[in-house]
Design brief:
The protein is mostly helical and 267 residues long. The chain has a single domain, classed as ABC transporter involved in vitamin B12 uptake, BtuC (Orthogonal Bundle). It contains 12 helices and no strands. It has helices at residues 8-33, 39-57, 61-82, 88-108, 113-121, 129-148, 150-158, 160-165, 170-192, 197-211, 215-240, 244-266. α2 (39-57) runs antiparallel to α10 and α6 runs antiparallel to α9 (170-192).
Length: 267
């Protein structure tokens, strides 16, 4: 076990995982409160299409995936305004488009299909210095945004109409939050994979909301749950040679079950 902590690939995995756990938890609480829990799946599928295109045209895959994710987040926001009564349609439409594009790029570039598959299930042990730099930059941006606009985000999460009445530029903030969510999802794909990235956003938030008594406490508990699951999951996966992404998500589910049981006992 100890030799893992001297391996460069494992230390990079721990660093990248810790950073993404922090940002995913913060963004996750916000999107869960806004009833947009499935946005992670929608953007992740579009991001995978970008990753596939990156391999096809020989550009940095995560960078291309990030560009696709941002475009998807803007499209979801536009569709959400167009279908206010059926806002969940926006995610379903974008997810379908992402899957269609990904399948098209997979067909065109069959030679890189194995590489792209690793993005579906995560490949955290292959993080390099460039990946870490991108993840660190995204973390810094998310933390700065959350710190500077914490009051505005609180109001927007609980009552968008009240935020608009109070003069908050709701449309601008919605776009900014969507873009930051896309950043986090794109960075998280290489860690837990596109098929599991939604869990990293929503389950820590679910754990926190089951236990917290205030918005600030919910943020703290979500971050704690995410960090514990990612770091412990990586250690367990490394020791027993398990899939890191799947191990992290199963730990999160176990933590959620424990949180719900604890809440039931407290009532």
């Amino acid at each position: 076990m100890l030799e893992l902590f001297t391996a460069g690939f494992f230390l990079r995995a721990l660093a990248g995982g810790a950073l993404i756990a922090l940002t995913a938890a913060l963004v996750g609480v916000f999107i869960v409160l806004r009833r947009q829990a499935m946005i992670g799946d929608g953007i992740a599928h579009v991001s995978i299409a970008g990753v596939a295109l990156g391999f096809l045209i020989n550009l940095y895959p995560i960078g291309v995936g990030l560009a696709f994710a941002v475009a998807a987040s803007l499209a979801i926001e536009a569709l959400r305004r167009a279908y206010r009564t059926y806002a969940e349609l926006s995610i379903a439409i974008i997810m379908a488009g992402g899957i269609a594009l990904a399948s098209l790029f997979f067909t065109v570039g069959m030679g890189f299909s194995v590489n792209v598959t690793s993005y579906l299930f995560g490949s955290i042990y292959t993080l390099d210095d460039t990946d870490l730099a991108v993840i660190a930059a995204i973390t810094a941006v998310v933390l700065a945004f959350a710190f500077v606009f914490q009051k505005e985000l609180f109001l927007l999460a609980f009552d968008e109409d009240a935020a608009a009445v109070n003069g908050l530029p709701v449309r601008v903030f919605n776009v900014l939050v969507s873009v930051l969510t896309a950043f986090v999802i794109s960075a998280a794909i290489k860690i837990v994979g596109a098929l599991l990235v939604s869990a990293l956003l929503t389950i820590p938030a679910a754990c926190a909301l089951a236990m917290a008594r205030s918005f600030r406490q919910a943020l703290g508990l979500a971050v704690a749950a995410g960090e514990l699951a990612v770091l412990l999951g990586l250690c367990v996966a490394g020791w027993w040679n398990l899939a890191p992404g799947g191990t992290v998500v199963l730990l999160l589910i176990a933590m959620l079950a424990l949180a719900l049981a604890t809440r039931k006992l407290r009532v």
